[in-house]
Amino acid sequence: MTNTPLLSLQDLRFRWPRAEHDCLTIPHFELHAGETLFLRGPSGAGKSTLLSLLAGVLTASQGQVSLLGQDWRKLGTARRDRHRADHVGYIFQQFNLLPYRSALDNVLLPCGFSARRRERAGQPREAAQALLARMGLSAQDWQRKASELSVGQQQRVAAARALIGAPELVIADEPTSAMDEALRDAFMTLLLEACAAAGSALLFVSHDARLASAFQRQLDLAAINEAKAGL
Ligand SMILES: Nc1ncnc2c1ncn2[C@@H]1O[C@H](COP(=O)(O)OP(=O)(O)OP(=O)(O)O)[C@@H](O)[C@H]1O
Predict the structure, then answer these.
(1) In whole angstroms, what separates CA 119 from the centre of its chain?
(2) For residue 19, with 0-12 CB atoms within 10 Å meaning exposed, 13-18 middle and 19 or more buried, which class applies?
(3) N or C: which end of the chain has fewer CB within 10 A?
């Protein structure tokens, strides 16, 4: 085993088109295999932007961002999409489920994009059902269209989709924002347990400081970002 971090970022500089200032200037950041990290920062600080850079959805204007030792900028679009599908599960702020597909089909999507995830899932259908059950969705709900599920159920489907095929990295962008306290606490326990069971690292963004203590590491984006937020 090498000591290569799962994620590494060096001398990153990122500016949105037409913006007058850098959104992010981060000299260094690392996340290790299996690690759980809580990332906080005020609204507009650049948390979602950073997640997109780490997942290779955006590429940096300067600097290096690598996942499993692979620099995102050295990959063309198709290979970038493959690398992401193989190794990253993403829980979006707005879930991004396919509304007319069933909960089960939504969870199976990454296995359609990535042979590696499909293989790691073993029997994908059974794996998807097990994840949905673990997330507290009943067998009846598995066949319901995503658009017919409650917001809390949709968030749990999105989590199951991110976890299928045990990607090395799970990224969660404010996944509990639409949940009440009881559901949120149950969801956090499930998510952390499922990541531990899969050996996935978890990079979790939230404004809710009460969740932070469940993570191995906590980080304020302002502590690593040298760009002047809000200018
Ligand atoms: N697609 C985009 N095009 C141009 N500017 C953008 C885009 N997305 C975000 N920004 C800008 O980048 C900055 C950081 O936004 P970002 O969404 O990353 O912050 P955040 O910390 O995730 O905020 P929040 O906590 O409110 O979700 C903001 O100034 C925002 O206006």
Answers:
(1) 20
(2) exposed
(3) N
Structure tokens, 164: 């299928």
Total-model pTM:
0.93
Query: How far apart (Å, rounded) are the C-alpha atoms in residues 31 and 144?
Result: 36
Locate 11 and state its tokens.
């001398």
How much distance in Å is there from the Cα of 103 to the middle of ligand 1? 29
Does ligand 1 have an atom closer than 6 angstroms to the CB of 231? no
User: Alpha carbon of 142 to those of 51, 56, 71, 139, 149: distances in Å?
Assistant: 29, 30, 37, 5, 10
pLDDT tens, position by position, 21-47 = 999 999 999 999 999 999 999 989 999
Assigned token pair, 160: 């199951």
Instruction: Please identify which residue in the block is written with the tokens 């500016």.
Output: 15
**Alpha carbon distance 7, 201 (integer Å):** 10
What domains are there in the chain, each with its CATH number? Answer: 34-62+72-220 (3.40.50.300)
Quote the pLDDT of residue 227.
86
Residue 71 neighbours by CB under 8 Å, 6+ apart: 64, 65
Q: Is the CB of 59 under 6 A from ligand 1?
A: no
